[in-house]
Design goal:
Elements (H helix, E strand, L loop, with lengths): L4 H8 L3 E3 L3 E3 L2 E3 L5 E9 L5 E8 L1 E5 L2 E3 L1 E5 L6 E8 L6 E10 L2 E3 L6 E8 L2 E7 L10 E7 L1
Antiparallel strand pairs: 1-2, 3-10, 4-9, 4-14, 5-8, 5-10, 6-7, 6-9, 10-11, 12-13, 13-14
Length: 149
């Protein structure tokens, strides 16, 4: 029986594993990020797909609302979302992103065959090709382009 991606992440105790190339469970964005543009390129999954952003030691400002944690859902958000990052003075700072999906009203992440192929395209551009946890790994369930400033 072949292990799914979440089992591999757990067994290797890692946020990056190798399955026909690198697969990440989470992506760490630079602590110097002040603005993040999230472009939803494609969503092919049968379930609503999203990108979750979480900041520690600061806040996210999305559409005028200040948050520490936000989900940008492909079925409700515009194709391009601008996120400002305001950092606090604390020493512990991080900005992370990972894919999520909904089954009914329940948000899921990091289960089954969830993972991301992360490509650094150029200065400040990162492509995330996300597989939700349902069924076989399919890195076209959600494709997001991040521009980091």
């Amino acid at each position: 029986m072949q292990m799914d991606l979440s089992d591999r992440f757990a067994e290797e105790r890692a946020t990056r594993i190798y399955v026909d190339g690198p697969v990440d469970s989470i992506v760490e964005l630079p602590e110097t990020t002040s603005r993040l543009t999230v472009k939803l390129v494609a969503a092919e999954g049968r379930l609503p797909q999203g990108l979750r952003l979480k900041v520690r030691g600061g806040s996210l400002i999305v559409n005028g609302v200040t948050l520490s944690d936000a989900v940008i859902w492909e079925d409700t958000a515009p194709d391009i979302v601008e996120v400002r990052v305001r950092w606090g003075r604390g020493a512990a700072r991080s900005l992370r992103a990972w894919n999520v999906w909904r089954v009914g009203e329940v948000q899921h992440a990091w289960t089954g065959n969830a993972g991301m192929r992360v490509s650094r395209l150029g200065e400040g551009e990162i492509e995330l090709r996300c597989s939700d946890g349902e069924g076989d790994a399919d890195f076209t369930n959600l494709i997001v382009l991040l521009t980091v400033e």
